[in-house]
Specification:
It is a single chain. About 25% of the residues lie in helices and about 25% in strands. The chain has 3 helices and 5 strands; from the N terminus they run H-E-H-E-E-H-E-E. It has a 5-stranded mixed sheet with strand order 1-2-3-5-4, covered by helices on one side. It starts with a helix and ends in a 19-residue tail after the last strand.
């Protein structure tokens, strides 16, 4: 779980003072994969949540074992997004921010997919957003998602 804690520390280092980040990571979580890519996934999701809440807000990250893998949930109390947006968030060049490139979540999706995992997004206007990803503990996958399952883009 050290890679996850380091990624969160990195992502929150530049958070505004008014943004509270709560992190709950179960002990003993382990993944096989490219550590630098998994680090990038977590940094991107946490930084997006921090940017979404602005100068004041809350971001939460929970990571637990689920089946034969790890479930990570990142939630923010930012503005959320309109219905139908979740279905497009992981497509290249899709963005909800005026200064966004629309590549960050696309890259997150590709990295998660190549590690045999899945990712989904859920949000409502005024209620924040939640991103949930599941990654298998081993390259073969198993448990809650078949290896290579990338079909669960949005929830």
């Amino acid at each position: 779980e050290q890679w996850l804690r380091e990624a969160v520390r990195f992502a929150t280092a530049r958070a505004p003072e008014g943004v509270a980040v709560e992190v709950s990571v179960a002990d003993g979580l382990s993944l096989q994969g490219a550590p630098n890519l998994l680090h990038q996934v977590m940094v991107n999701l946490v930084e997006n949540a921090i940017q979404s809440v602005g100068a004041v807000g809350q971001v939460g990250l929970v990571a637990r074992e689920r089946g034969e893998g790890i479930l990570v949930r990142v939630h923010d109390d930012g503005p959320g997004f309109a219905e139908g947006i979740a279905d497009r968030l992981f497509e290249p060049f899709a963005t909800t921010r005026p200064d966004g490139t629309g590549l960050g979540l696309f890259l997150v999706y590709e990295i998660v997919r190549r590690h045999g995992g899945r990712i989904s997004a859920e949000g409502r206007p005024g209620e924040g957003a939640t991103f949930e990803l599941w990654l298998p503990s081993s390259p073969q996958g198993g448990g809650d998602a078949p290896a290579g399952d990338a079909s669960a883009r949005s929830g």
